[in-house]
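Let us practice reading a record.
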Amino acid sequence: MAGRKEPIIEFLSTTTPRWSTSSFGHGALNSSLDLSLLGEHLDHCRGAHDRLFTMQCLAETLHGFVAGRLVTTLVVAALLIGVASIAF
């Protein structure tokens, strides 16, 4: 096609960065607000990780118990379901 322009993606990849956080080869300057917000973010992530880690440990413990006693667990579950269906 005659007069076809180059794609926008190629045009954008050849331009210089236009974000305000770029340090352009120099050391980045961090304000106390930046560091405070980063600390809050890390505390939040750490708290979420702790809860998930606890749940994962509980799930692994339960899995280890059930896997080691599969037949016994199935019999107990069947008995509980049977008793519950008769009682209710």
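A brief commentary: The chain has a mean pLDDT of 77.
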